[in-house]
Amino acid sequence: MAIQLRAQNDLPTLRIVLSGAAARDPTVLFQVARGGATPVEVARCPLRDLGLPPLIEGPESFTRELRIAPAIISQLRTAVASLGFSPIPPIKSLWLELPGPRGYLYLLPWELLLAPLNRTVLRLPNFILRPKVHSEKLQVFVAVLDSTTGVDGAVRRICRAWHQHADRPVDIHVFAGAVVYEKLRHTAGSDRNLVLHNPYQAKPRSEDAWLNWVLDSVQGRAFDVVQVISPGTLTGDRGGVVLPIDPAATSPIRRVIDGSELVTFSSRVGAWALVLTAVSKKSCLPGLLETADTFARARPGVVMVQQLRAGPDHIDIDRGIQLICGSPEKITTSLPGITCWAHPSFVDEQRLDLGLAATGETSLLQASTMQVLAEPDTPAWVAAGSRILENRQSQWLRTGDTNSAAEPAADADAIAALNSVAGLLNRHVTNFLADRDKP
After folding, report:
1. Does 439 sit behind a cis peptide bond, omega within 30 degrees of 0 on the bond before it?
2. Is it the case that residue 92 has pLDDT exceeding 50?
């Protein structure tokens, strides 16, 4: 899908390829392309020159100094400049494509390594469809799974940033363990758009009391964004976030939630975006990147990893929100603390034969469904039903040649089936509206 996206949107793209992945000393190839043009190699180097060993043995493998040689940066700077600016904001964006076999290249912080290029590096997503986002008020779920010193201050800063930089009003629901909750509860009441949930009110459960506490508390509410503040973890080649079993922290038992489980949770609450935020200097960035990559490869949507850098402004918080739902045209620099899989807005005419609108969103959702999705308090089942339809449509759109710049061929039977599903969902929503509006 990456080649289709860059071709359809005329994107300036840096393609990083692992050559000889099975060899003892693989080579990394750096290629550039504009739109659907054939990628041109501009530099190469042995994998070991990046500071990454051929065999990854855990998080400690990433503790060595990662780097790109100045000579290669110089070659890339010249080649990237020749590509010109992006037709889609941020205009200084450079779209990153990491085709398979990738090895462990996708776990590298390319956004940091490529910062000298002074371009906003964004990773091409795996789907040509993007979720439909029409709610009048943004609903943000924040799970705080990190209790290190200073996390409460970061949570306050994050909540302020959502209000300051989102393009619409925001409601924020914060779920934190007992330690962070005690630090936040004296100030949360000053913001009427922030709900701080009490972990001591969680019902006792034999397992997964934390997740069930969340689901009990939101009472069927749909969320647009799921943000998880966690140091992350990496076991072998599997990343995840560590979830306390007990919200009130009376039990030391923890379990790891991986990317696939975050997909399930996000789909259940109807979210179209996932943000993983690392606050601690000891955070496992490769673990968060692997988790985010798993999510990004499983379903369409915006996926982001933030690594908050030291400093009073925490500018990456603001820029991250602007990328998701703010003013991306204001971003004119590199974002070394942000990794983002973002769908570029489509600039060509509506493609009704594929069930896609000009924005890249599905055009199959019908009037009643659209009406409820646009309301400030969308029920989770409506949002989740819409995400299921989008996921099925995305899977069909991926059945074509993923190495071709051509769009998938229109399939009348597939569109008819998807329209049938959309119609069924719309009938349920219409009935819901009729029952709700009864005197």
Report:
1. no
2. yes
Does residue 265 contact residue 240 with C-beta atoms inside 8 Å? Answer: no
C-beta of residue 327 within 8 angstroms of C-beta of residue 344: no
Task: Judge whether residue 120 has pLDDT over 60.
Answer: yes
Say what the alpha-carbon torsion angle 330, 334, 339, 340 is, to the nearest 10 degrees: 30
The helix or strand, by DSSP H or E, that contains position 424, with its residue range, turns out to be: helix 412-436
Tell me how far apart the alpha carbons of residues 306 and 298 are, in angstroms, rounded to a whole number.
20
In which residue are the tokens 């009391």 written?
Answer: 209
DSSP state of 356: B
Q: Report the distance separating Cα 337 and Cα 122, nearest Å.
A: 12
Compute the CA torsion angle 16, 320, 317, 155 (nearest 10 deg).
-110
Rounded CA separation 208/244 (Å): 8
Neighbouring C-alpha atoms within 13 Å toward the C-beta of 175: 25
Please list, residue by residue across 133-144, b when 16 or more beta carbons sit within 10 angstroms of its beta carbon and e when fewer do.
bebebbbbbbbb
3-state DSSP assignment of residue 165 = helix
Cβ proximity of 106 and 124 under 8 Å = no
SS3 351: strand
Q: What is the pLDDT of residues 202-231, one digit of tens each?
A: 887 777 888 889 988 888 888 999 999 999
Radius of gyration of the CA atoms of the chain, in A: 22
Dist. CA 400–CA 394, nearest whole Å: 11
The type of residue at 70 is P
Condensed to tens digits (0 to 9), the pLDDT of residues 342-365 reads 877 532 223 334 555 555 566 677
Q: For residue 413, is it left (φ>0), alpha (ψ between -120 and 50) or beta? A: alpha
pLDDT of residue 264 exceeding 70: yes
**Looking at this protein, which amino acid is placed at residue 51?**
G
Nearest to 140 by CA among 257, 270, 248, 263: 270
**Structure tokens of 113?**
């390594």
Q: Collect all residues with Cβ–Cβ distance below 8 Å to 105 and sequence separation of at least 6.
A: 16, 18, 28, 98
DSSP state of 371: H
CA distances from 286 to 62, 92, 283, 309, 382 (A): 8, 26, 9, 16, 34
Query: What's the rounded Cα separation, in Å, for the pair 124 and 122?
Result: 6
Q: What is the pTM of this model?
A: 0.77
Reply yes or no: is the peptide bond before residue 90 cis, omega within 30 of 0.
Answer: yes
